[in-house]
Write the structure tokens for this entry.
Amino acid sequence: MAETIHDMLRELEPEIIGWRRTLHAHAESGWTEFWTTAFLAEALGRAGFHLKMGAEILDGPSRMGVPEDAVLEAAARRAVDQGADPKLVERMRGGFTGLVADLRPEPAPTIALRFDIDALPMEESGAAEHRPAREDFASRNAGQCHACGHDGHGAIGLAVALILRRLAERIPGNVRLIFQPAEEGVRGALPMVRAGVVDGIRAFIACHLGFRALHTGELILGLRDFLATSKFDATYTGVPSHAGAFPEQGRNALLAAATAALNLHAIPRHSAGATRITVGRLEAGEGRNIIPARAVMRIETRGATTELNDSMYARAQRVLEHAAGMYDVGFENRVMGGCSGARCDPAMVEVLRRAAADMPFFRPELIRDGVHFGASDDVSEFMSAVQAQGGAATYAMIGTELAAGHHNGRFDFNEAVLAPAAELLVRAVLALSAARA
Amino acid sequence: MAETIHDMLRELEPEIIGWRRTLHAHAESGWTEFWTTAFLAEALGRAGFHLKMGAEILDGPSRMGVPEDAVLEAAARRAVDQGADPKLVERMRGGFTGLVADLRPEPAPTIALRFDIDALPMEESGAAEHRPAREDFASRNAGQCHACGHDGHGAIGLAVALILRRLAERIPGNVRLIFQPAEEGVRGALPMVRAGVVDGIRAFIACHLGFRALHTGELILGLRDFLATSKFDATYTGVPSHAGAFPEQGRNALLAAATAALNLHAIPRHSAGATRITVGRLEAGEGRNIIPARAVMRIETRGATTELNDSMYARAQRVLEHAAGMYDVGFENRVMGGCSGARCDPAMVEVLRRAAADMPFFRPELIRDGVHFGASDDVSEFMSAVQAQGGAATYAMIGTELAAGHHNGRFDFNEAVLAPAAELLVRAVLALSAARA
Amino acid sequence: MAETIHDMLRELEPEIIGWRRTLHAHAESGWTEFWTTAFLAEALGRAGFHLKMGAEILDGPSRMGVPEDAVLEAAARRAVDQGADPKLVERMRGGFTGLVADLRPEPAPTIALRFDIDALPMEESGAAEHRPAREDFASRNAGQCHACGHDGHGAIGLAVALILRRLAERIPGNVRLIFQPAEEGVRGALPMVRAGVVDGIRAFIACHLGFRALHTGELILGLRDFLATSKFDATYTGVPSHAGAFPEQGRNALLAAATAALNLHAIPRHSAGATRITVGRLEAGEGRNIIPARAVMRIETRGATTELNDSMYARAQRVLEHAAGMYDVGFENRVMGGCSGARCDPAMVEVLRRAAADMPFFRPELIRDGVHFGASDDVSEFMSAVQAQGGAATYAMIGTELAAGHHNGRFDFNEAVLAPAAELLVRAVLALSAARA
Amino acid sequence: MAETIHDMLRELEPEIIGWRRTLHAHAESGWTEFWTTAFLAEALGRAGFHLKMGAEILDGPSRMGVPEDAVLEAAARRAVDQGADPKLVERMRGGFTGLVADLRPEPAPTIALRFDIDALPMEESGAAEHRPAREDFASRNAGQCHACGHDGHGAIGLAVALILRRLAERIPGNVRLIFQPAEEGVRGALPMVRAGVVDGIRAFIACHLGFRALHTGELILGLRDFLATSKFDATYTGVPSHAGAFPEQGRNALLAAATAALNLHAIPRHSAGATRITVGRLEAGEGRNIIPARAVMRIETRGATTELNDSMYARAQRVLEHAAGMYDVGFENRVMGGCSGARCDPAMVEVLRRAAADMPFFRPELIRDGVHFGASDDVSEFMSAVQAQGGAATYAMIGTELAAGHHNGRFDFNEAVLAPAAELLVRAVLALSAARA
């Protein structure tokens, strides 16, 4: 049997790589994954999965950082232009992207796998040494780029689905595949949890390519040191003025923001553990000869614990408020996302360990556990919710060499990881089903 | 006769105000004045003026700060959508906006009037107390706003043209009406001068509404203390990285720009005279959780003399260069515009003084000369070129109450100034013609 | 007679230069001019002048920026060690320095000359090319330096006194010589005015070496554009902490001050005229591994008008307050000095013009009036007070080449200016006396 | 026997507390511990220890951050004025403070204890709630304060010495007591190591009061996570100028330093572990109205590993260099200290554990090992040197409640810890001696 699963995936491998490249080329950032969702929905629908979409799987008001209507509509139109089924796109109207696919409509789902599918709002490299550019699958969408491997996650999810379908008679219960939107900015998980997507889940596995696992054959079964995080936008509103003739009449929002940015990064390190702060985006001013009357900053804090993150957030608010006061400009803060920390259950770590043990692809000396994460993934919201209802969860990392770091426009990974990653998850689902049967 | 001119303009006044409002609603910033130019060209063509457009009146390579092709094309499309003649728009392809209209094709032009017609790249207020919003002539074009009165200048120019046409038999020579694009950013005059637009001009008058003249009936016949200015864009290029997981791997262009902005504004005042520095626009970073790898600043310096401006520019370059060095990011500087100072000729000041003396609208006690300007207008390029070929020039300001300062989204003026402004210019042209005859 | 005055001063010249060098070597900054005052008091006492000192000539509570007792006492002790008469020093106890010397005890004084005598709190250059170092009259007092020419002012004042004494029978009224302490920081004049030092003065002259007059033979009879100014100290009080072990427990006063300093200098220029802001001194923190809990800044603002200075002061307070808020540190502001603007009376300008006309030393083409000052001198307090009681005043500048700019540790001037400067003042006094007789 | 040691220390306790208070009152910062060293030398000499001082125990050129001669001389004079033996003080001339006391001159020393004895350069609180102020043993030396417990360390060392002397017949080998100067700034250990102070040491113990152990009865037997650190001074040299009259002629060292300070603190956190940066002291400028021409910053970086600290140091140099370039001022960097990380040997941890087990004072549930340090102590230089020659070492922390954190002017500890701390060390020495015998 083991050989059979391995052979199935070996056979499917060229297609999996193809799906990854297709998803890569259609990179869509959080809440605009129209084409991506439609692509997955069509394939999973054809395979006989029971699909849920839209407000069924997302609690609308919990969605933070949803783009403006014009942006959503342009993205939806683009998806249709690029071939997405208009009826599916219509079901996602207003940015209700993402997909939940059940192997069986009932009985109660027991096993869940989560795949995040969004891209980053950044430019992809066009350099010749960047394989997606060279081999012509770079993002067609300006300012959108799969620089975090979620294209691979989507392709793995689709592969897992197709194999599980074929092995369905060996799986007595339900398997739920969760294709989560808007992981970047940690915004998509909470609305799914609040819409009931985790109801009934007893076992939960998610995985990420690369990150702390940078060699083919490497496998991290569980992580520690998730960073809690807050995402927020600060807006300053001043008074414009002619920069040459009446500079003193302006209230300069750009300088307030520059002062804030510097002093935010100068918030002291904390002896109790890791913290982070980043102003990832700053946009201020209009014309060159107008005292800038408006500035917007997109900011995030992180902390090794919720307390550390809270302390960073409180200090950041103090800095932002007084930078505004210094320049006599108005200040508005808007929370755009955030998530807590998380922990991996030893039981689920063991399930993965045994599944990997049967696969020569994973090199025993590179299989580890309890590895430092030091970053955030809102998978933590799913994990906490599952654990709260008595289930078990883990978050794994599957090793692959990278062409450049995560969130870099030249990010790329070794596609040889895709089929084994799918195989690992299939084996884990079968093992969990067997235990349960 | 004096009564006749006055009566003509009185009669025309409702139309002039209408033109101003139409231009206001179609605000277009520098090098995108497609609708505006087409509107003027149609009216002046109908009136029998000899028109020149495109590369005839603009030296292409001298045009600084031309928007990217996509922006130009979108603006051109928008102009056609809003009713502009596609053939006229096609003649401006690539951002060759603006218009030169001669009363006679020959003999050599002797008298020139200049009107700048561009809007500012800023949002107009939608507040109820803002008349353009209340009376429904606010800008239809997002991010474009006539907040400096150039809509009025265009309307005055059109009024002057129609009246001069009717008085043509009293004008033996030529009168040239120059509708200049891209005055904001002081970019439009030099390409016009280099394309020969000032050839043969012996007398030159330009005027501006408001600014140093803030009462109806006030008139400044000539200004002193023009500020020389440099306009430039600084671009920083760093390295992106995942802000939570690997903050140390990034090279932060946003922080380099924030440091530069603060230190640029901290360049010391100069004992030899007025200086200015403004970072009018700063855009940095991509996503919230990516160390920002790119920042662009739009900057200007000014100085009461060319030496003072040069010294500000040199200091600014030093700050920009070392802010980049501090964060180990690349730095590129691109000059986008600039102009020298200027002086008004007493002879032309006298012409205006006599013209105003016959108009009860201008209150004698509010007619002044040699007033401090303390700002920049690239009318200085026209003035210097005219003076270099032996001609005389002046730059006047016509008083009007303002609802808010120049370059403020609530800027508006008292439209009662429009007809008298046109009358003043018509009278000046007639007086110059008479002297010459 | 003219020859006689000239001859007298010619003969006295070596002594005047010697006095200047002696004063230079005993540089004492504001409110510590113990040796300097004692030196002058002894010489003027011997010459028969009627002397006033201490609380008679200074309103105690009006003296701002008085050093701490320990500093005053150390300076007083040093003066005695350097040979000052202990009884005189005792009369200045508590920093009551400065001297008023009347030619006659009565009748009412009519003519006053003011000489400022304090040094700057800065290090003098020891370089070989610096004449005071090379010729061994550099400051013996560490951190105290005559880098503004007040040593010359004191020497001129003494020379004038001795000559006037000899010409006393030609002077029917009184002449009052005011030796003002603490001009740097504009602190000494107001307490003198409030103590009644200007009572009865009808004509007032003060002069400064160099500044806007940089050639031997140059003379500025009167100045315009005095800068109003405010002097103040800002103190931040935070919380110290171990910088390695508990950085987050500190509240960093040093970073608050650094932020304040940058943003203070970034206060925008003003279109209505010249402004200035300087953080001249910043001291923050204790040990290297302690989060700095205290910072002190010595700051000044200036403005071409009192309104401009007030606006700078208000903006500075806003910046200081919010930089404190940003770092959650306490903020205390203490006003340390300040003065208004001033104007020169044409009548007094004429007196000086005629006096200079008789001296070949002053080159007619280099004698000017109404020259731009663009700085502050609290002589303005004397001038305003004299003018308020119906008198006339002027502030002159006497040209001399400088080795380096004012307030630079290599400042030095051409001593050939000293005797002619004294001669000019003697002639002015005689002319005023003659007019009055 | 155990009771005997306990009883001896119980009896000695009032004296130990007295010594601590005496040392507290005579706080002396690094390289000026003249009084402190003399006090200990006299007591240990009387007790029959063999003393070494001066250049015998300190390699002169390795001493970093030695104060200027004038400061050293003033401190030496003050020590003599406060009763120190002039002959002893003379042996420390030039800042060669600290003491090494051997129980026996031979055979080879085997066991060493280290006590650091310097105070911090900061002001002690005078508040009534601060016990040293209230009970009249606050520092008599302005700007010097025992805010890190080294006064307690010295008192413990003296107590240990006196008890060991009485138990000498039970100790076959030598015991060396090292009283280290200049631990603050991590400057004193390396010169001692280089002078051969660790020669022959096989077992090494040091301890610190408080820090990570904040309860009476708590004991940390060994620490992990020492921070490597670099200490350095940055000096900026600009050009002074009159701040009102010629602001543009200055080159502002204060603003360069302010910019550097902000941007140093904004150096990003590192994903590989803890880092620190602090500008602990900044002094810039002279008078209020002089553009500041000089600035000095005392800076430190730290890192969880030497690599992390090196990376912080390299980034800091880049920031410092370019802040200088931005303001066109000269930059000089001077390394003032630094130390590597360290590790504790399990064998020595066990020795302490057994010694503590016999003392009811230490509560078993509060005895820990392998505790996170997260700070620096140049005890690491001794430990590395001992380990390099085959010896074993540990660094312990002895719990005590604190009135305020380390390096805070209100720091104070519970003196009940002193006698038990000495007892623990005596027991450890006896156990090591017994093992060896």
Observations:
- Chain A has two domains: 2-225+341-436, 228-339.
- The mean pLDDT of chain A is 94.
- The CA atoms of residues 207 and 396 of chain A lie 4 Å apart.
- DSSP finds twelve helices and 14 strands in chain A.
